[in-house]
Amino acid sequence: MGNIKFVKENKEVIAANGANLRLKAMQNNIDIYKLIGKMTNCGGGGNCGTCIVEIAEGMENLSQRTDTENRMLKKKPENYRLACQTVVNGAVSVVTKP
Questions:
Q1: Within 13 A of 84's CA, how many CA atoms are on the CB side?
Q2: What is the strand order of the sheet 52-57 is part of?
Q3: Which residues pair with 87 in a beta bridge?
Q4: CA-CA distance, 87 to 89, in Å (whole number)?
Q5: What is the DSSP letter of 61?
Q6: Domain 2Fe-2S ferredoxin-type: where (predicted)?
Q7: What is the pLDDT of residue 17?
C-alpha cells in the first residue's frame, strides 16, 4: 500500500501496490487532463500523451518508464510520466497538469 499525494489538489489517496496512476486519479475525482486532453484522450492506451504528470517525490516507488513513455516523453524531464502507463508501488507525490 502507498499513498498518492496530488499536490495541486491537496488531496491524498491510498493505493494498493500495482495500482494504475491514471485510474486512481479518476476514481478519486482528480482531473489530470488539460482542456484539450479532456476531449482527445485515448482512454488510457498510451497513444495520446495527454495524461502527463510530474512526479515531485517517490520516483523509486513507480514502475520503470515504458517504451511508449520513452517515445512520447523524450523531450520532457525524467520525472514526467504518462499516468496511464505508471504503476504505483509506494508513496508518491504527483503534480497534475505540469
A1: 18
A2: 11-15, 2-6, 92-96, 52-57, 80-82
A3: 20
A4: 7
A5: G
A6: 2-98
A7: 94
- Find, among 97, 91, 98, the residue nearest to 5 by Cα: 91
Q: Are 94 and 28 in contact (CB under 8 A)?
A: no
Bridge partners, 9 (sequence order): none
For all residues of the chain together, what is the average pLDDT? 95
CA dist 56 and 68 (Å) reads 21
The C-alpha cell that represents 61 in the structure block: 516507488
Q: Long-range CB contacts (< 8 A, 24+ apart) of 72-75? A: 72/46, 73/49
For residue range 52-96, what is the model confidence (pLDDT) as tens digits?
A: 999 999 999 999 999 999 999 999 999 999 999 999 999 999 999
